[in-house]
Each structure stands twice: as structure tokens, then as C-alpha cells.
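Exercise 7b. C-alpha cells:
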């Protein structure tokens, strides 16, 4: 059972309920939360690429804001997976490797942007409207847009929790944070997201 990342006030807020439905954007969510059949054949990189590439691209878009950068991050993550394939134990280890590689690649992308004088941020009106995030309801779009105003660590934790459906322990593994830091960061991020959304509608 996936443990709940802490909320700011004990009860689930409207922002958390909306965030919780972001899992519907994740094409591999069910695959990641169902145990494989006992007689399942060994996983291959081709199969992982086919079933999880779009999931990873969508996650990267939520972290770096534009499709081209997200695709670059994910392509490099799969290249790293190929190089390290022999050292991975099973399907779950491979998916965990990909998640961590996407988080780290997104961090590197954001650092490069901050140091690049000529970087022009993508138009917020089109950055997340690519195929991967199309068809969002107005409520979902407001949450996704507000994610871009959070600190990078806060955004990582919320994306992994609500889009990826990960537990605190899994988020800690993917981000290199302690479980306690994951929980406190999630609580502050949800509260901050609520403030951002209320300000946007005031």
C-alpha cells in the first residue's frame, strides 16, 4: 500500500484532490502499480521504452516545462539505462533507475538554463499544451501551471507523488532526499500551491 505523503492540515485539501487526479495523465500508472505475472518473461529495454517512454516524457515536462527539453532528458535517461542494464536486478529496478535519471537530468537542465544568459523561457501558454498534456481540464491546467512557480525540489516531490503515485520512500530514492524531508517538502509545497492558485483567481 502506497503511503500518503503528508498534507498541511491533516485532511485532504482541494489542491491535493486535484493533484491526485494527475495520475490519469500517466500512461504507465497501472503498469507501475500492478505486480507482474509470476511467469512473466524477463523485461527488455525495448519493452520499457515502448511502455514507459511517454510516462517519463510527461513527468519531465512537468519538471522542465517544455517538450523538447523533456524529450532530451528522457532520451539520455534511456541511454544511461542501456549502459547500466547488466547491473539492474529486475523491472522495478529499471523503472526506478529511469525515474532517478529523469529527476537528475531535469535538475541539470534547469541549472544550465539558469546559467545561460540567452535562455528564453517557453511561453507558459504553450509550454505544457503539447500532445502529452493536451486535453487537461481547466482545473488540471491551473494546477499544472502553478507547479511551475514552485521551487524545483517542491515541484519534484509533488510530481513524483501525484503524477507518479510514489510513496515517500520511493520519492526519497528518486530524489536523494530523506523521507522526513520528502514529507515536509510535500506539505509546504501543497500549501504554497494553494496560495499560488488563490492569488491567480483573486
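Sequence design result:
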Amino acid at each position: 500500500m502506497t503511503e500518503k505523503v503528508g498534507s498541511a492540515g491533516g485532511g485532504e485539501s482541494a489542491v491535493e484532490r486535484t493533484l491526485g487526479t494527475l495520475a490519469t495523465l500517466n500512461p504507465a500508472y497501472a503498469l507501475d502499480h500492478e505486480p507482474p505475472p509470476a511467469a512473466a518473461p524477463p523485461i527488455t529495454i525495448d519493452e520499457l521504452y515502448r511502455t514507459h517512454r511517454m510516462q517519463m516524457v510527461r513527468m519531465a515536462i512537468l519538471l522542465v516545462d517544455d517538450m523538447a527539453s523533456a524529450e532530451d532528458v528522457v532520451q539520455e535517461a534511456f541511454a544511461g539505462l542501456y549502459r547500466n542494464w547488466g547491473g539492474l536486478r529486475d523491472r522495478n529496478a529499471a523503472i526506478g533507475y529511469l525515474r532517478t535519471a529523469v529527476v537528475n537530468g531535469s535538475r541539470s537542465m534547469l541549472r544550465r538554463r539558469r546559467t545561460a544568459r540567452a535562455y528564453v523561457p517557453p511561453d507558459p501558454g504553450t509550454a505544457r499544451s503539447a500532445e502529452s498534456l493536451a486535453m487537461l481540464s481547466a482545473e488540471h491546467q491551473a494546477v499544472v501551471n502553478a507547479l511551475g512557480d514552485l521551487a524545483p525540489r517542491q515541484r519534484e516531490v509533488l510530481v513524483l507523488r501525484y503524477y507518479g503515485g510514489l510513496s515517500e520512500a520511493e520519492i526519497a530514492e528518486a530524489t536523494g532526499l530523506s523521507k522526513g524531508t520528502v514529507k515536509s517538502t510535500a506539505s509546504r509545497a501543497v500549501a504554497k500551491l494553494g496560495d499560488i492558485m488563490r492569488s491567480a483567481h483573486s
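Instructor comment: DSSP finds nine helices and no strands in the chain. The chain has one domain: 14-200.
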